[in-house]
Design goal:
The complex is a heterodimer. By secondary structure, chain A is mainly beta. Chain A has a single domain, classed as UDP N-Acetylglucosamine Acyltransferase, domain 1, CATH 2.160.10. Chain A is 7% helix and 28% strand. Chain A has one helix and 21 strands. The longest helix of chain A has 14 residues. Among the domains of chain B are: 77 residues, no CATH class; 138 residues, Immunoglobulin-like, CATH 2.60.40. Chain B is built from five helices and 22 strands. In chain B, the strands form six sheets. Chain B has a six-stranded antiparallel β-sheet with strand order 2-1-22-21-16-18, with no helix packed on it. A five-stranded antiparallel β-sheet of chain B has the order 6-5-11-12-13. In chain B, strands 14, 15, 17, 19 and 20 form a five-stranded antiparallel β-sheet that branches. The longest helix of chain B has 29 residues. Chain B is elongated, with a radius of gyration of 32 Å. Classes of the chains: A mainly beta, B mainly beta. At the A-B interface, strand 20 and strand 21 of A face loops of B.
Chain lengths: 195, 467
């Protein structure tokens, strides 16, 4: 259910597709769509201020991760000529504990490690790994399979993409409901809002 | 390194071969010479080798054979982190029946920090978890080994000649068979003996331990001299025009960590075995007693012998500094801590005019003229809530507070310069009871050993003047 064109202009609530596990303690605000088999841990925050967020399947969003679609810093929230941009996140991404992601476009199989920060103008393609505590605030498209690591954010290219965390996702989808209440999902057969 | 205590502000002077000013936490105290020693005036000896990641001990002979590298652990060639072995399941055909496939475990090396894997350089997955990984062979090993053998022989020959010359100069009735001089002579391509090593700064030859054993047959080894080539391989034609593929270029550090190959491309960076670390013991150069001897076990951080200065010398620490103004007297609060268990008497003296040690001070200091008494360190005192008052009469102008084995006292500082940092120096004189000296058995009346008075030169850096 990663259809970025289903921009429901009237939707102000969270839409969770069946199969996703989203804990009640997570803080999700605004127009957010979460795909199947995605796990959102408690205390994760997904905030859609300046536009909708569409999250694909099989993502893992850990505690205290912040995915925020916010207004660019030099613009006032009241300015009317700002068109809401959709933040789209692909499949099989991992947002580790405490990371901050403001990137508008994230592809598949990326890993944003703990306490990393990804700025708004960065576009992560697929297989990218942003290492722990690395802040990437440039205005660029990160090529595929790039690893950003170290205190100086050195880069290198790896030969294969990181493996999707299927084992971890299965485990969490079994265990989390035993300890947390989950947010209600919407039936998968629901159609987008009629125009 | 910044710490809460800021020990680098209080420096003690060590009168060794060089005069060094170091915080007390980095000094050792030789209780046989009754002097402070720093790392530069002691001799360092290797105690044992161990691998920092698997903590495996290795005897020195084995370490030398393996070129000081661990047999099991590898370093990432990209970020120098320790590599870990990971396993995957791959389908592999059964040896009996090629049509059926079964899951076999394949192991590869991976770095947790930069995500480098051994598959990046084309190393195939191994079927055993450890021991399967080989370092690439250096193509020049043969030539290097031959050269080393030749020079070993040369060194041995020169040593014999030198011995013969020395013996010929000595009186004729000296026994020639056992030449005591051999021990004292520095081997040309080897490490000098301990007596030679006392010279600080003496270079240690890189070709350690190359001397042949006594009695080995000396066969003549000849080497071919290296040949100079007229023609050099030309550069590829597109060397200047080809765009640089940045992820493929190795950094200087990655390249130089493998001096055998120095690969320019990242796809040729092979992992190397991890370097061993060593535990060292320190020995006073004057009296040859051990100052620091760690335990043999790599997992233990304790010491068998630990003669560090903080457990014998009272430590001065700066507690609070007021605003310092040029030519105005201000009071600085210092603390003195007594590390030993008996009562210590400390007196402070200002440095005299023209004191050769006093080169850094930029302010005049007035220290308390009376003797300060410090109580002994009582390990059980922190648990004893009903501690009796210690009964010391303290002058409130001098002593600010007193707490078990610590006192706070004031000194008056008058900065002499208008700009720059304020540095102050004074002499600290205290009594030291030498428990290491043997107690004379005849005089049973004396319960404690005699006290000797030690004087140290202390420098404090109090920071900049208040604007």
């Amino acid at each position: 259910m990663a259809d970025p064109n289903a921009k429901q202009t009237g939707q102000k609530s969270v839409k969770i597709v069946a199969g996703a596990v989203v804990c009640v303690e997570s803080d999700i605000r605004g127009d957010v769509t979460i795909g199947a088999r995605t796990v959102v841990h408690p205390k994760a925050r997904i905030i859609a201020e300046a536009g909708p967020i569409v999250i694909g399947d099989g993502n893992l969003i850990e505690e205290q991760a912040l995915i925020i679609n916010s207004y660019p810093e030099n613009m006032l929230p009241d300015a009317e000529d700002v068109e809401p941009k959709t933040m789209s996140i692909g499949i099989n991404n991992v947002f580790e504990v405490g990371c901050v992601s403001q990137a508008l476009k994230i592809g598949d199989n990326n890993v944003i490690e703990s306490k990393a920060e990804v700025g708004r103008n960065v576009i992560l393609t697929s297989g990218c790994i942003v290492g722990a505590c690395c802040a990437v605030n440039t205005c660029e498209v990160i090529p595929e399979n790039t690893v950003i690591y170290g205190s100086e954010c050195l880069r290198r290219v790896q030969t294969e993409r990181p493996q999707p965390q299927t084992l971890q996702l299965d485990f969490l989808m079994k265990i989390l409901p035993n300890y947390h209440h989950l947010k209600k999902t919407v039936k998968a057969s629901s159609t987008p809002a009629r125009s | 390194m910044a710490t809460l205590l800021q020990p680098e502000k209080v420096l003690y002077l060590v009168r060794g071969e060089k005069k060094i000013r170091v915080p007390l936490s980095q000094l050792y105290f030789c209780r046989y010479c009754s002097e402070l020693r720093s790392l530069e005036c002691v001799s360092h000896e290797v105690d044992s080798h161990f691998c920092p990641s698997c903590l495996e001990n290795m005897p020195s002979a084995e370490a030398k054979l393996k070129k000081n590298r661990c047999a099991n652990c590898f370093d990432c060639p990209c970020c120098m982190h320790t590599l870990s072995t990971r396993a995957t399941n791959i389908p592999a055909p059964l040896p009996d029946d090629p049509t059926k496939t079964t899951m076999k475990k394949a192991y590869y090396l991976a770095c947790g920090f930069c995500r480098w894997t051994s598959r990046d350089v084309g190393m195939a997955d191994k079927s055993v978890a450890s021991g399967g990984w080989q370092e690439p062979e250096n193509p020049h090993t043969q030539r290097i080994n031959k050269l080393i053998e030749y020079y070993q022989q040369l060194a041995q020959r020169e040593k014999l000649e030198r011995d013969r010359k020395k013996l010929a100069r000595r009186r004729p009735f000296m026994p020639q068979a056992f030449s005591q001089h051999t021990i004292h002579v520095v081997e040309k391509y080897g490490l000098g003996t301990r007596l030679q090593r006392q010279r600080s700064g003496a270079p240690i030859s890189a070709l350690y331990g190359l001397s042949l054993k006594e009695g080995e047959d000396q066969k003549e080894i000849t080497i071919e001299p290296a040949q100079a080539l007229d023609e050099v391989e030309p550069l590829p034609e597109d060397y200047y025009t080809r765009p640089v593929n940045l992820p493929e270029v190795t950094t200087l550090r990655q390249r130089l960590l493998q001096p055998d190959f120095q690969p320019a491309g990242a796809s040729q960076l092979h992992p190397r075995h991890k370097h061993l670390l060593m535990k060292r013991s320190l020995r006073c150069r004057k009296c040859e007693h051990n100052l620091s001897k760690p335990e043999f076990n790599p997992t233990s951080i304790k010491f068998k012998i630990q003669l560090v200065a903080v457990s014998y010398i009272p430590e001065v620490r700066i507690m609070s500094i007021p605003n310092l103004r040029h030519m105005k007297e201000s009071q600085v609060l210092l603390t003195l801590t007594n590390p030993v268990e008996n009562i210590t008497h400390v007196s402070l003296y200002t440095c005299e005019e023209e004191d050769p040690d006093d080169i850094n001070s930029t302010a005049k200091v007035l220290v308390p003229s009376k003797e300060l008494v410090l109580a002994g360190k009582d390990a059980a005192a922190e648990y004893d809530e009903l501690a009796e008052p210690q009964g010391f009469q303290d002058d409130p102008d001098v002593v600010a507070f007193r707490k078990s084995n610590k006192i706070g006292f004031f000194i008056k500082v008058i900065p002499q310069r208008e700009e720059g940092d304020v540095t102050v120096a004074f002499k600290l004189r205290h009594d030291f009871r030498n428990l290491a000296a043997p107690i004379r058995p005849t005089e049973e009346g004396e319960a404690t050993s005699e006290a000797i008075w030690l004087t140290h030169h202390v420098e404090l850096s109090l920071g900049p003047l208040a604007t």
